[in-house]
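Regression report. Comparing outputs from two consecutive submissions.

Submission 1:
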Amino acid sequence: MENLTVKHISELNNLELLANQVVEGFITGMHKSPFHGFSVEFAEHRLYNKGESTKDIDWKLFAKTKKLFVKRYEEETNLRCHLIIDNSASMNYPLIDNVTLENLSKIGFSAIASAALMEIFKRQRDAVGVSIYTDEIDYFAPAKGSDRHRRMILAQLDKMLKSNSKATTNTYKALHEISEKIHKRSLIFLFTDMFQISKNEIELFEALRHLKYNKHEVVLFHTFDGKLEYDLNFEDTPQKFVDVESGDQINLYTDTVKEKYKIEIEKYFNDLKLKCMQYKIDYVPVDIRKGFQQVLISYLISRKKFL
């Protein structure tokens, strides 16, 4: 899995395969973690009760966990979930030559994380919808639970990965429009780096608050590259920094600004967290270099609170 290239990741069948691998690894890890209580709540499985028929035992899962689980076959949809993905130019940072699961751009991470969430939605019998935006809504699909619908969305995620968007961000405008389209009482997950051409934070948070209308719950996955964007960990040589959306440029030695930058970035993240608390939005900082577990656990916790 570590040697997967960008060509493989951007192919539909392998995107689905990657999602399955991520989820299976996550579930196996959950059985060994403090979050074990969540792991047995997947609609696809329940713990085996002594004395009942063994015909529905999942032996593959037993081989991984050494515990007996019985497959379930409920057909009902429990919850509507909606994924919103920012596909602006800044989300296509950093540019990656040799892409692996441990070495992704923000949009690559968001696509695979979304596909993995969709795999869990399927197992939970939850319906899924998707919105993709740049300076406008590029794609919208309402929440449905069919396999055909999920494959259509996977194809759109694949298309998004190949697009390498150069568009600017107009998050607040797009979110207002998306808010009007989503079915009431949904669990909403937003992947964005929170960069936008407009610096009007009031408008941005008003748009986030709009997402909460109609009894929605909102989880903001603040997606960033911890090494480059948070720690400013570049070589100590003159660097040219180019704003991928505005085109503005600056040349500097990162070591000369790193101390002050660290203070400012910590303040920025803390302000975002406090603002989200004020608007009753779940704020989850997501470092794309730390894997997908943070995203999947956030879904399980949010789902447990929402139902």
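Submission 2:
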Amino acid sequence: MSLAVQDDGWRLSDALWAQLKPLLPVYQPPSHPLGCHRRRIEDRVVMEGILFVLRTGCQWNALNATGICSSSTAHRRFLEWVEAGVFARFRQAGVLKYDELQGIDWSWLSLDGTMTKAPPAGSKTGRNPTDRGTQGVKRSLLTEGAGLPLAVAIDGANRHDMKLTRTTLEGIIVPRPAPTPERPQGLCLDAGYDYDEVRTIAAELGFTPHIRQRGEEAEAVVRHPDFKPRRWVVERTHSWMNRFRRLLVRWEKRDDTYLAMVHLALGIITWRATGLLG
């Protein structure tokens, strides 16, 4: 899937900016006894700086050499928008629009976690047991049938996938229809979720768990040509997220700023899926 940015990889398209702009707080210029103050950098320019950091994974200070805007301006505005909940609302608006235009497939959902490095450590990080104990972050993601992200949760890399099941399922960002016997909501999971606790949580929240062992779906496709694998869509969405290099390696020490970057990336993926961005 191509991302909703122009060829240079960080300038916002007009269509994407049209979705972001209404979510930004209204700027109130400060009063000055002499009636003057430094000209404010336009929000769109600053958002392009933030997107540059998200796409490349560079340090904030690297913005000073790009000519986009200063690192201090971009980071200060980023923190203001994090506090205002801009990025979470951007993602939520995208999911609602996707449901309106394409329709969320609630019949089959997929849940999976992945681990990435987190060199600065910080909150909600931990030692990665699969990477020599280096600091890392666990990212738990829930997608609908076509792979659209519906919920995300983060914790330390030492946190088992199954321990994030409830937090992730309860974090669905839009209203969820109630499952019925005629329209059940299947929850596709891998062997890492093969625990009674997971089955209990799924049943409590109205999901029907389908837990596959390693290689089981691939084997089923070979044996039954009409078999449709389900869980791969969440792995694909994790891969799309890692194209945003700021998520491939976590450099934010604060969990709220890291989550804001996650919301921005997922929001772009979601808005692209609506078909409104060209």
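Expected: both submissions complete independently.
Actual: both completed, but the second showed a warning that disappeared on reload.
Relevant detail on submission 2: The chain has ten helices and six strands.
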